[in-house]
Design a protein that fits this description.
This protein is mainly alpha-helical. 66% of the residues lie in helices and 0% in strands. It has one domain: TerB-like (Orthogonal Bundle), CATH 1.10.3680.10.
């Protein structure tokens, strides 16, 4: 993924809990098609680096429950939620194809988390 200086500024302002939520949602997106591809693992590493997620935050993210995750993402501003949608979209397409399950997962998340419908047009 390519990011401008402005992107990096926005991405550096996620709180620990927001980064943990992003990580969990992207990890969930990775396994929707029932496979874990090398490209998806590489993208996870890239996202971890982009948002500055620490090892401790990754560990803590495993304790998040669904209501906390949902509320945290819903409480993000529109621009932050757009980046969440962009990360999810990139993960779903990381292996070069999007299954019906992945498309359904993405559409459900868009609605449930009030994410922008076209995240690649940031």
């Amino acid at each position: 993924m390519k990011f401008t200086a402005l992107d990096k500024l926005v991405l550096s302002n996620f709180s620990s809990i927001e980064k943990e939520c992003i990580y969990q949602v992207v990890c969930a997106a990775m396994v929707v098609d029932g496979e874990r591809d090398p490209e998806e693992y590489e993208l996870i590493k890239e996202i971890i680096d982009i948002i500055g997620l620490t090892r401790e935050e990754r560990e803590e993210s495993r304790q998040l429950d669904e209501p906390t995750l949902t509320k945290t993402i819903l409480d993000m501003n529109d621009l932050q939620r757009a980046y969440v949608a962009k990360f999810i979209a990139h993960m779903l397409y990381a292996d070069g194809k999007v299954t019906n399950h992945e498309e359904a997962f993405f559409n459900i998340l868009l609605d449930k988390l009030n994410l922008p419908k076209d995240p690649d047009n940031l």
